Amino acid sequence: MLRHEYKYLCDLTQNMVLKMRAKGLLQADKYTGNKGYYYVRSLYFDTLDNQCYLENENGNDKRNKYRIRIYDGNCEKIVLERKSKVRQMTSKISCPINEDICRKLMESQRVEITEEMSERQKKLLLEIQLKAMHPTVIVEYKRFPYIEKNGNVRITFDEDISSSNEIDKFLDKKLLMRPILRNGQCILEIKWDAFLPSYIKEHMQMETLQWGNFSKYYLCRKYNTYGGIIV
């Protein structure tokens, strides 16, 4: 199912104000617990000719990204995903994988596809292997997520976005990370299905924010290429 997805770059003041408004309007995601946030760490893959990176850079209308993702450093729940984007609409398919499969993908090793695997596992692993994809960069950030059942709206504030080239340490508790955004900046993402309630659009000041294709994967890859904070 395709969903609308809009991304905005917010400075420190916008981040604080809009987060307060989101807290008043929406319900915090249940997975945040008492903290109000969780950490997301993703390992992204690309082809040998950097197809995924170049599709982002060129603004291609249709593009895919492949990644492995863990939350709060929990290696007991590892997810393999493919995220697709078509004209500001996104879709995602995902499946759980075990640590053995994860480590093989981290090392660009071939994963044997077996009958016991789910159809989604087979599909995603086959796509990665047919495209000869390999791990390229680790992206990590702190996420403050809020939800609204009306319109199936999800609003997230992604802070402390950082990257790492320590691919072999993806499952380790600590990595050597480098910040991508300037101090206090965050990426605000607003996602919904068929409609976005007008009160959310108004209170989140969507028309006044700096809209853009702020791909965290692309920003971290670009940082690794050119160095320095890039936004």
Describe the 3D structure.
There is one protein chain. The chain has six helices and eleven strands. The protein is of the alpha+beta class and 231 residues long. The chain has an eight-stranded antiparallel beta barrel, surrounded by five helices. The longest helix has 14 residues, at 12-25. The radius of gyration is 18 Å and the shape is globular. The mean pLDDT is 92.
Tags for this model:
eight-stranded antiparallel beta barrel, alpha+beta, 37% strand, single chain, 231 residues, 6 helices
What's the structural blueprint in terms of helices and strands?
Layout: E1 3-10, H1 12-25, E2 27-28, E3 38-46, H2 51-58, E4 62-71, E5 78-86, E6 89-97, H3 99-106, H4 119-130, E7 134-148, E8 153-164, E9 178-179, E10 186-192, H5 198-203, E11 210-211, H6 216-226
Antiparallel strand pairs: 1-6, 1-10, 1-11, 2-7, 3-4, 3-7, 4-5, 5-6, 7-8, 8-9, 8-10
